[in-house]
Amino acid sequence: MTLLQLEDVSVTYRTADGPVPAVRGVSLELEAGSTLGIAGESGSGKSTVAATVLRLNPASATVTGRVLLDGEDVLGMNFGRLRAVRWAEASIVFQGALHSLNPLQKIGRQVAEPVLLHGQADTRRGADAMTRELLGQVGLPPRLASSYPHQLSGGQKQRVMIAMALACGPRLIIADEPTTALDVMVQAQVLDLLTALVHDLGVGLVVISHDLSVLGTTCDRLAVMYAGRVVEEGPSADVLDRARHPYTRALSAAYPTIGDPAARFAPRGLPGDPPWPGDLPAGCPFHPRCPEAVDVCRTEDVRLRPAAPGHQAACVHVAAEVTG
Amino acid sequence: MNSRPVLEAAGLSTSFRARGGRVARAVDGVDLELGRGEIVALVGESGCGKTTLARTLLGLERPSAGQVLVGGVPLRYDGRALKAFRRRVQLVLQDPTGSLNPRHTVYEAVAEGLRVHGVAGDEQQRVVDALSRVGMRPAERYFLRYPHELSGGQRQRVVIAGALVLEPEVLVADEPVSSLDASVRGEILALLLQLRDELGLSVLVVTHDLGLAWNIADRIAVMYLGRIVESGPTEQVLADPSHPYTRALLSVVPESHHLEPVVLAGEPPDPTRMPAGCRFHPRCPQLASGEAAAAGVDGECRAGSLPVLPASKEHAAACFLSAARQGMLTD
Ligand SMILES: Nc1ncnc2c1ncn2[C@@H]1O[C@H](COP(=O)(O)OP(=O)(O)OP(=O)(O)O)[C@@H](O)[C@H]1O
Ligand SMILES: Nc1ncnc2c1ncn2[C@@H]1O[C@H](COP(=O)(O)OP(=O)(O)OP(=O)(O)O)[C@@H](O)[C@H]1O
Ligand code: SF4
Ligand SMILES: [Mg+2]
Ligand SMILES: [Mg+2]
Is B303 inside a domain boundary? Predict the structure, then answer.
């Protein structure tokens, strides 16, 4: 059975300035033992999707659609069942979660806590041993167990958060920007670690990142979001090397190649304003910034269509006759 | 006075008291200069002391040795001097969530600096300009939002807007764009270049993103375990790295294909226990492979003393092996 399935999920926030439709009809799937990457514009709804999987949205959010975890609808669960799921089955490493570390408590205590709570160890000594093992797994020396959070660098704290997410042996891990604060060396190590969990333990992994090169090396499949929607989805290699949506192509082009004289003192962005979720343009939401827009893009609200086997994109230039 | 670097570290060290009465020498003898209108990238592995160096340069940590110089004048740590300094030198912190007050709206967050420093003029117009520059447009629509109502990248842009609104001379930015997608990233980097060209802004940018350095930095300084181990013009350091650590760093960048990837083994370095000799020697691939021994410097790598790399614009590395090779070239 599919480990995680999102069906037509929409999330709208109430704000002082009116409703913000942050996620608009997202459908995604993840099998156990595989990795799905979510990339996309800042503000396109990636973290909102992550929160919805465990129903961790704030009270100001209205959620519709279905989120199936092993076939069971998370949105319909009672609170007791939800809590059990959050403990034992799935965990999220939140973006910027470094702040949820308690500044007054030693790192070791904080990692040991979920270990004890979830019954992974019965005694404090057993929990301590497991804590050291977890810290080792994320490449941290065991001596850091006796440090306080302010004594750690940003990257070290990020790895503590990953160690805590691993503590309860979850079957699904959602990592929101897990390597943003990490240097390339540690980034390579953390991604290797997450990938090993997927292969060895059959964990399902969702990695959210704005960095396509990070996702490309880790993920089986890749979804690209823009303005609350998935605009392209398919096998990683296809999405990266044969992108069909102009936004995906713009994202790949914006990363410089070191040594390329054309990129020296010439950072490339995407011209135009990011979309305002409360006030989206008619037609394709990307058309005001799209270098390949044609007349019909201003009026037709294009949805995902097959671009190649197992690969879909939401762009009028994707020939409608291909069926996948 | 104008010829002096705007911001300078001279023999700078910052230590912390760590567990068991030991001392963590997070920054341990750094000479670094930031010239007017110059963009310098400070790169290096997690925990090597980049944030501590940035915080010390801003007067947020007191150095345990050495000095911070501002336009050639030692930084004074009394309240008034620091306040004047902080208007001219702005900091963008690594973690946007921690630097925004959860009870302040976007407008208040950006306007706060203007109020603290009693800047006259049209406050609202300045806030609009700053937000628009960082790609939050239309700016007015974000005014009343609270940090928890923003995405991670939007929060980071508010922090950058709050720094730019004061029109500082120097910006010290700790991973300013690492939480931003490529399109906004490009826009903000372009903005930094533009401010440098138009207003002579100087920028010290802490980053692990070597592509960012290639995009905007005039010079790169590579840090390892509290020291600068290599520095020089960006083209030279990235095209022809001398220090084995810089080579390893470049080799794991997905965009660089010409180097064989070297994932460093060994325990991550611990600033409470500085290795003797070259600080990198326990993990150095060139020492392990016997290259250093072939050049006859392996003894020095393990036990010799490496001088602090001087603040200079020339390409230089603190490494016995590269020094020996240089010597062979010039002899
Ligand atoms: N609690 C909230 N109230 C109102 N609006 C919100 C709230 N949380 C998020 N938003 C808005 O919803 C949109 C999607 O936010 P989300 O955090 O999901 O984006 P993201 O794709 O994760 O972005 P980033 O890459 O910057 O982290 C943004 O426009 C954001 O401003
Ligand atoms: N207040 C403190 N007390 C004790 N040790 C500290 C303190 N602050 C930092 N350290 C230690 O000093 C070293 C340097 O930390 P710093 O935050 O400067 O690293 P960094 O280079 O910015 O790393 P990152 O890239 O992960 O942010 C680390 O080993 C850290 O554990
Ligand atoms: S000095 Fe020796 S140990 Fe240090 S980087 Fe150079 S070759 Fe390696
Ligand atoms: Mg996010
Ligand atoms: Mg740091």
Answer: yes
Bridge partners of residue B8, in order along the sequence: B33, B69
List the domain range (segments joined by +) for residue B265.
241-325
Neighbours of A216 (CB within 10 A): 18
Residue A96, pLDDT score: 67
Work out the angle between the directed axes of helices B244-251 and A184-201 (0-180°, nearest 10): 50
Could you give the domains of chain A? 2-89+170-245 (3.40.50.300)
Ligand 3 and B319: CB distance under 6 A: yes
pLDDT digits 0-9 by tens, B99-138: 889 999 999 999 999 999 999 899 999 999 999 988 888 8
Distance CA A53, CA A90 (A): 9
Query: Does some domain include residue B164?
Result: no
CB < 8 Å to B190, chain A: 267, 269
Secondary structure (3-state) at A313 = strand
- Ranges A101-115, B47-61, B233-247: which has the least confidence: A101-115
CA distance A219 to A33: 11
- Tell me, what's the ipTM? 0.83
CA distance A234 to A92: 23
Contact B256 A259 (CB under 8 A): yes
pTM: 0.85
Mean residue pLDDT of chain B comes to 89
Ligand 2 pocket, Cβ-based, cut-off 6 angstroms:
A 150-156, 183; B 16, 18, 24, 26, 46-52, 94, 271
What pLDDT does residue A324 have?
Answer: 41
Confidence band for A72, pLDDT divided at 50, 70 and 90: very high
For residue A225, report the distance from its CA to the centre of ligand 4, in Å: 12
Strand partners, B205: B41, B173
Asked if omega into B138 is within 30° of 0 (cis), the reply is: yes
Residue B312 lies in a domain: yes
